[in-house]
Amino acid sequence: MITPPLPATGDALRKGELSPEQADVVVGAASANPRAERSLLKQAQTMSFAELREEVLPARAAGEDRGATERRTIRTGGCGRGPMPRERGT
């Protein structure tokens, strides 16, 4: 059985706990940061749509930052550091 990437969001949408517009906002952020999915769903139940859109920005940015770090680690051979500048001018 294949598990959808954001099962809690799908469940909330099917149960009518989340509007399609709210789901779009949550999916956008939770796709970048899956760890934030449940928290965002709780917030969606109490916040206005405008508040929710603002609230997802940090969650999305955190996920994007983590993704950039992972890509950089892969690109630099696993050390997590980019090329080093010349330190002594040699």
What does this structure look like?
The protein is mainly alpha-helical. It has 4 helices and no strands. It has helices at 7-14, 20-32, 37-46, 49-75. Helix 2 packs parallel to helix 4.
Structural class: mainly alpha
Report the helical percentage.
55-70%
How many strands? 0
Main beta-sheet annotation? none
Q: Which range does the strand content fall in?
A: under 5%
Looking at the structure, what is the overall shape? Answer: globular
Enumerate the spans where pLDDT stays under 50 for 5 or more consecutive residues. Answer: none
What is the helix tally? 4
Average pLDDT taken over every residue = 78
What is the H/E string? HHHH
Topology:
Blueprint: H1 7-14, H2 20-32, H3 37-46, H4 49-75
Helix pairs in contact: 2-3, 2-4
Compose a concise summary of this entry:
This protein is 64% helix and 0% strand. It has 90 residues and is an all-alpha fold.
Summarize this structure as a short list of keywords or feature phrases:
single chain, globular, 0% strand, 90 residues, mainly alpha
